[in-house]
Amino acid sequence: MQFRYLGNSGFKISEITYGNWLTHGSQVENDTATACVRAALDAGITTFDTADVYANTVAESVLGEALKGERRPSLEIFTKVFGPTGPKGHNDVGLSRKHIMESIDGSLQRLQTDYVDLYQAHRFDFETPLEETMQAFADVVRQGKALYIGVSEWTADQLRAGHALAKELGFQLISNQPEYSALWRVIEEEVVPASKELGISQIVWSPVAQGVLSGKYKPGAPLPEGSRATDEKGGAGAVKRWLTDDVLTRVQELTPIAQELSLTSAQLAVAWVLQNDNVAAAIIGASRPEQVQENVKASGVTIPDELLGRIDEVLGGAVERDPSRTHERSPKTREA
Questions:
Q1: Which of 7, 19, 135, 334 is in Cβ range 3.0-4.6 Å of 283 for a Cys bridge?
Q2: What CA dihedral angle connects 80, 81, 87 and 91, to 10 degrees?
Q3: Is 44's pLDDT higher than 60?
Q4: How confident is the model at residue 23 (pLDDT cuts 50, 70, 90)?
Q5: Which residue(s) pair with 13 in the sheet?
Q6: What topology is assigned to 3-328 in CATH?
Q7: How far is residue 153's CA from residue 191's CA, in Å, rounded to a whole number?
Q8: Which 3 state secondary structure label does DSSP give 219?
């Protein structure tokens, strides 16, 4: 396992990070979830990412139980705040001071830890003054409940504004967590250059494009049983945008490129995002321990420029690059 610094800080994380967005408390049983976490630890992963909104707080509880007994200083535990939780009342969502201060305490209790290494604004809150949000984060850091602060799916302008306030308030904004894959490159034009300027790293989610870049979905073929695309609890909705014959045909053409590097297509996809020097980590999820064991093999891989060019040629017009798509990710109202 390779490790990278997160933003302009002295804080290192495993470049393959384990995340439990669509799995823990939802797609897989708790014993399987625990087995996946054990497989991650055995493979050298030390960084774990979750959020209070995942399975309406249950995912945090499952992760906390799975990590119970591990040496806390040897782990990096991340969680997030924004989405509606609990009974989803009018203050159970967003980045108000009230929601942040109550949410961090709930997350720590569920994760069975005194602090999280990184506390992240899961989306940008258009209805709360940014000054209020960043002051609350500053207080969370000063109380020792979080060591660092990050965000998720913020635009370049939002990152600049948040970073300036964090600096004024005496804490570090060191990370952004966007979707990023060989098929979804919307951060490259604006977010990545701004982040490099500010000393912010990307911790990217869905590097395998919800499993599509693994090559398991074949054009014109039935969806594989038990795959994310057949999961009506949330997985199917997330993956359906990629299930076109054009995309799936192009993805099949990546197989020979992966084979040249002695990688699977999924490993190639994870290794591809790690070639971006602004990416500190790729988040992988798993519904089986074997998936963790396979995907960690992407750590430390270097893809030659010639093969990166071939990947670009193969995927061609199937790649989404429009930077405005980041702005669409944050809801403009925060109704629970």
A1: 19
A2: 180
A3: yes
A4: low
A5: 4
A6: TIM Barrel (3.20.20)
A7: 9
A8: coil
First to last CA, the chain: 40
Report the alpha-carbon angle 110-43-200, nearest 5. 65
Task: Name the residue with tokens 């990416």.
Answer: 279
> Strand 116-121 vs strand 3-5: parallel, antiparallel, or unpaired?
unpaired
| Separation CA 236–CA 230 (nearest Å) | 6
Task: State the pLDDT confidence band at 136, using cuts at 50, 70 and 90.
Answer: very high
Q: Is the pLDDT of residue 154 over 60?
A: yes
Instruction: Name the band, by pLDDT with cuts 50, 70 and 90, for residue 27.
Output: low
Q: Copy the structure tokens of residue 248.
A: 């799936």
* 314: CB partners within 8 A, 6+ apart: 250, 253, 254, 257
3-state DSSP assignment of residue 5: strand
Find, among 209, 215, 266, the residue nearest to 240 by Cα.
Answer: 209
Pairing state between β 116-121 and 146-151: parallel
Domain segments of the chain: what residues?
A: 3-328
Tokens, residue 193: 């250059």
> What's at 216, amino acid-wise?
K
Give 118-131 pLDDT, tens digit per residue: 999 999 999 999 99
Cβ-based burial of 71 (10 A; exposed 0-12, middle 13-18, buried ≥19): exposed
The mean pLDDT value of the chain amounts to: 92
**Six token digits for residue 139:** 């207080």
Give me the sign of the Cα torsion angle 296, 302, 308, 310: negative
Active site amino acids: 54
